[in-house]
Amino acid sequence: MLHNSALPLQYLYAYRSGECTVVELHGEIDLAATLAIAACLDAHTSRPEPLIVIDLTHVTFLDCAGIGLLCRARRRTIAEHGELHLVCPHPPALRLLHLARLTDTFRPTHTIAEATKGWRAAPPITNPPAQKPTDGRTDRLINSGDRDGRRRSYGPGAEAGPGASD
C-alpha cells in the first residue's frame, strides 16, 4: 500500500495560537479521512500541550469514524495532562455528537474564541517541601507499633538499627 504524505494536508491543518495548538479538520471526515490523518493527529495529541482545540468549522461531513477519531484525540490529550476543546458550529455534526451522547464530554463551542475564552495555562506543579514525620506540634518522633509487636521510630534522628526496617 502506498502512502501519500501530502494526503493529510487536505484534511488537517495545525498551528499555534497563543498557548494552545489549533487543529483544523477540513472536508469529509469519514473512514478514509480518519485513516489518512490519524497518525498526524496522534503526533499533535501525544506530546504535552496544555490546550488543544480541534476546529470542525471547515468539515462538510462527519461520521462515526470521525467521532472515534475525536475520542481518540481526547484520550491522548488527557493522558498528557492537557485539555481538548472542540469547535463545532454545524448542526448535523452537533446532532451526531448529541446522538452519541458526547456533548457533555466535548462541550462543543461555535468559535475558537469561545473555546479559549477564560482559559489560561495552569501553573506548573511543584513538589511540596519535604516534611518531617513528627506529631505536628513538637519535633518528637512518631513511634509506631506493627502488628508483630515491634516498635519503629520514624523521623529525624531515628536510628536504623535491627528491626527498624523490613
Describe this structure in words.
The protein is an alpha/beta fold and 166 residues long. It contains 6 helices and 6 strands; from the N terminus they run αββαβαβαααββ. A 4-stranded mixed sheet has the order 1-2-3-4. A two-stranded antiparallel sheet has the order 5-6. β3 (51-62), α3 (64-79) and β4 (83-87) form a beta-alpha-beta unit. α2 runs parallel beside α3. 22% of the residues are buried.
CA radius of gyration is 25 Å
Into which percentage range does the β-strand content fall?
15-25%
Judged by helices, strands and strand pairing, the structural class is: alpha/beta
State the helix count: 6
Tertiary shape = globular
Number of strands: 6
Instruction: Detail the poorly predicted runs.
Output: 1-7
The oligomeric status of these chains comes to: single chain
Helix content: 25-40%
Mean pLDDT: 76
Q: What profile does the largest beta sheet have?
A: 4 strands, mixed
The largest sheet has its strands arranged as 1-2-3-4
Order of helices and strands: HEEHEHEHHHEE
Please report the distance between the alpha carbons of the first and last residues: 58 Å
Précis, in short:
The protein has 166 residues and is of the alpha/beta class.
What are its keywords?
33% helix, globular, 166 residues, four-stranded mixed sheet, single chain, 6 helices, disordered N terminus, alpha/beta, 6 strands, two-stranded antiparallel ribbon
Ordered list of secondary-structure elements with their pairings:
Blueprint: H1 7-11, E1 12-17, E2 20-29, H2 31-45, E3 51-62, H3 64-79, E4 83-87, H4 91-99, H5 103-106, H6 112-116, E5 142-145, E6 151-154
Parallel strand pairs: 2-3, 3-4
Antiparallel strand pairs: 1-2, 5-6
Helix pairs in contact: 2-3
